Amino acid sequence: MRMKVLLAVPPGIDKLELYRVLGLKAPPLGLAWIAAVLERAGHKVRIIDSPTEGIDLKAFMNEVKSWNPDVVGITAITPTVYKAYDAVKAVKEYDKDLPVIMGGPHVTFMYEEALNNGADIVVRGEGEYTTLELINTIEKVGLDTGQFKSIRGLAFRSGDGIIRTPDRPPIKNLDELPPPARHLLPMDKYTLFGKPIRIIHAMASRGCPYGCSFCSTSYFWGRMVRYRSAKAVADEIEDAVNRYKTNIVVFTDDEFTLGKRFVYDFLREIRERKLDINFSCGSRVDTIDRDMIVKLKEHGCTALYFGVESGSQDTINKIGKRITLEQAVRVFQWAKEINIDHVGSFVIGFPWESIEDMKNTVRFAMKLDPTYAQFTVATPYPGTPLYYQAVSENLIEDWNWEHYTTLRAVMRGYRFTKEQAQKMLQWAYVKYYSRLGFVIRELIHGRLGTIITAIKNSLVPWFTERLLGRGE
User: Fold this and answer.
1) pLDDT at 459 over 60
2) 267 CB contacts (<8 Å, ≥6 apart)?
3) This prediction's pTM
4) Which pLDDT does position 199 carry in this prediction?
């Protein structure tokens, strides 16, 4: 008899800053991929996407009790991990013998914390095959931790100590994986800025070779970039578009354009299949050229997302980004000439920066003048070099993981306080979005209300009052 596995995004996180600010409800692709692999092996799987379904802890436990799973799996990123621990404890209070596993970026690096908060086992890193091997083993022997030592990619308590098994090698051929189990997700309930909009989220690759000091991607997925075949990605998108009646696709890859061969093969698949889709993707200013931007737009790309990070070449070098300011200027100019929406992402508050350095980053963003600019404050996520630097230099002043959203300063620098970093983030948004040219451009496109709502509700609560003459 195969296992009943309940996979969940923790309940209660829809009230957190991360979700409240953007009105963002996006499908948990990681859980959907794990579910697909488990289903292919014959296990029965259910996914509870708690924030999308509006499920609180009490309702979550009612679902656990009614479905009566053999194993519960809960995912967590850093700002949602406390809610995940609450769910773990509730499950254990209901049935202390019901195995609870945890996975995701935060617990991959903070597995001891997760085990101390009630989890039986932590799946570290890429989860599909580790979870499958673990579930198959639990099916045979239950929670006999002695049998888990041969499974790569785990952490669990054994006796008085914690065992961390060797890392599992990355999946070399991602085409081995079945498509994510979207049929287990509430695909008609996902939103952006609080508005219902049916979107197909897809991932064409995993891994990043750059290892930027503030980003966990390279340390979670690995430094080796692995692309799926263009055919497999196009097959998945074509099926999803037809099944869910939408042509909007968002690629969640950090660097979609890193593999030029993949990009052009994928565009050919779109053309040959006559797929009428609108898609957006992430890129780097050193992995894209003018011709690629033109081809992307011709085949339905509506927006490009670039991580520029800083207006200081010295900071770019220190974080390991490996781009130049000149490359950013050139690529953003191309995007304007080709008339494709583009987003620039910028980070302020690295420990070595001064207030003037942060202001220069905002000024550089204004010089580039992307369609939208995203400003965040440097956040020391566990597992990143920035985290280990901040811990060793005692820079972290706020250890509440719920505040690790990149929207709230949690550490000081050598020449600025945590409070000054927070004020600089507010200043960045006001400075960029109060420009007359930007306001006129958004009015022309009918988009001003959406961006003001996002800013007003989150980063600059007094934005509307001071700039538009309205009070709360």
Assistant:
1) no
2) 295, 296, 299
3) 0.92
4) 85
